[in-house]
Amino acid sequence: MSLAALYPWLKALHVASALIFAAGVMTVAVFLWAAARSGQDVARISAALRAWDRAVTTPAMLLVLVLGFLLARSGGWFGAPWLHVKLALALLLAAAHGMQSARLRRLAGGAAARPWRASPLLLAGFAGIAMLAVLKPF
After folding, report:
1. pLDDT per residue over 11-33, tens digit each?
2. Under 8 Å CB-to-CB from 63, ≥6 apart: which residues?
3. How far is CA 6 from CA 38, 63, 67, 69, 87, in A?
4. How far is residue 84 from each of residues 28, 61, 62, 87, measured CA to CA in Å?
5. How many CA atoms lie within 13 A of 4 on its CB side?
C-alpha cells in the first residue's frame, strides 16, 4: 500500500495523537499552576501524573512528530512557509513539555512547587498549529 493510500489514516492518527498530547500538556500545566498555589505536599500526585505523562503524553508527542513528518513528505509541503512556522511551534511545545516533565520529576521527589504560568502560551501554540494546518495560509 502506498503512502498516498495511507494518507487519511496517517492524518487521523496524527490528529488523535495531537489531541492526546495537547490534553496531557495542558493537564500538567494546570497542575503545576495549582500546585504552586496550594501550599500542600503534592509529591504523590506529581508521581502519578508523571507516570501518566511518561506512558501517554510523551509517546503521543513522538507519534505527532513522526506522523507529521510523513504527512508533510507525502503532501510535498517541506517548502511551504506555513509548515516551517508550524514546525517551530511544535518544537517549542515539545520543549515546554520537557520543562514540565522536569518540574514534575522534581515535585515527585519532594521539591517545592514554583509558579508555572505557561498555560496561555501553550494554548496559543496549540491553536496556532491547528489554524496553520487547516488554513495553510502562506
Report:
1. 999 999 999 999 999 999 999 99
2. 13, 14, 17
3. 47, 15, 11, 14, 22
4. 27, 18, 18, 5
5. 1
Q: Which amino acid does the sequence have at 28?
A: V
Domain of residue 124, residue span: 3-135
Give the count of domains, the chain.
Answer: 1
85/6 Cα distance (integer angstroms): 25
pLDDT tens, position by position, 103-131: 999 999 999 999 999 999 999 999 999 99
Helices 3-38 and 119-135, packing angle to 10 deg = 160
Mean pLDDT of 29-47: 94
Q: Would the pTM of this model clear 0.90, i.e. be above it?
A: yes
Distance CA 1, CA 93 (A): 33
Bigger pLDDT: 31 vs 2:
31
Give me the residue label for grid cell 517548502.
79
Block residue for cell numbers 498555560:
119
Count H helices and E strands in the chain, helices first.
Answer: 5, 0
